[in-house]
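Colleagues,

Please find the record for the four-part complex below.
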Amino acid sequence: MTKVLLLGRLRDVAGWRERSIDPAPATLSALRDLLTREDAALGEALAGRGVQAAVNKAVTRGDIALNPGDEIAFLPPMSGG
Amino acid sequence: MTKVLLLGRLRDVAGWRERSIDPAPATLSALRDLLTREDAALGEALAGRGVQAAVNKAVTRGDIALNPGDEIAFLPPMSGG
Amino acid sequence: MTVRVQTEAFDAGALLSRFSAGRTGSGAVVSFTGIARDVTGGAAVATLELDAYPGFTEPAIEAMETEARARFEMQDVLIVHRHGPIQPGEAIVFVATAAEHRRAAFEAADYLMDRLKTEAPFWKKETGPDGERWIEPREPDYQDAKRWNRTS
Amino acid sequence: MTVRVQTEAFDAGALLSRFSAGRTGSGAVVSFTGIARDVTGGAAVATLELDAYPGFTEPAIEAMETEARARFEMQDVLIVHRHGPIQPGEAIVFVATAAEHRRAAFEAADYLMDRLKTEAPFWKKETGPDGERWIEPREPDYQDAKRWNRTS
């Protein structure tokens, strides 16, 4: 199982904030592909400028292997406080 | 009558903070002379570096004629807030 | 670490009273309170909503606090930041710094606000009569934050 | 003019709460609280006493406020300054500034404190185990105050 979180405007694009995906995708790119197949608009937003992915609350770059139970968050450019 | 105020350390030098002098001296220098005759240590402190005189709450430079009822304050260098 | 990220409204004055109490060794306490405005950039704002990522947002702000403590001779610091829906006039963020001398207290508070305004992991949505809009830091915020690079 | 020179003790937090209340148009409130320390320059301080010249001290501070309002885009300011005997841990001075944006609020508070620290008509006596001493602004205070000449 993989927990997926959408922050900021991504939440509005998808219409959800948090969901679980089971079975867990093997990689971050597999997760992106899965989300994009389900919702092209979300897929486009996830590929947008400045959108970062965090795995278990640490920002990652590029592709990465996922383990069951990982929490993946997609972070649009931050607004600041 | 002239009202005389001593601020800050001048108060400690003279042992008083406020007094009235009657009749009113005609000038600021006459007031200084009078205070110095009475108390040499105060006279020296009044002539000290950075000590200013205010007449009716306005700082003055040099000598100035005084009118009865004037309030004269002697201000050592200010400490700030 | 004295960073709190919360949805509850707070009173900046009450935070300042508690922060200042018993400080016989600190000569200077500076506070900053950021308040939700009813108009931003000419547009009316009915509600501001800040999205936070719990467990991610706090450590990012704690890292700013650690850096501020390393840069400035501070004795104490408190950072309280709201998320969730916020009404105009309500406080969004409160930063207080205590130092022996006022220069460090001012600079540390100023520095922390510049960092928070540009880098704190929040996503901000303004809702007004014209609808909703997600907002990003303004250019002056980036310029403010850049000031600190010169002295590092 | 919102300058108060008083002998009564005050709570900085209570002043900040009242100053911030209902500010839907101000995004930024900065406060500075100056607190009497129990040690200054390595010497213990039992009591601080500030001598003021009523009727002279207030207008001098009001002139600083007027200049601050001319220099910075401030919406409001409050200055409260105590005189008379002050115990360690008690607040001596409180300055609050409100502005649309935080830079003006920070700079105005910083500016006012620099002016107050060097030019406000107070005479300050510290009493400790070593006796009494009248004090004058420290050299860093003059340096701080000079910073503002560059931008005028």
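Chains A and B do not touch (no CB pair under 8 Å).

Comments are welcome before we finalize the supplementary table.
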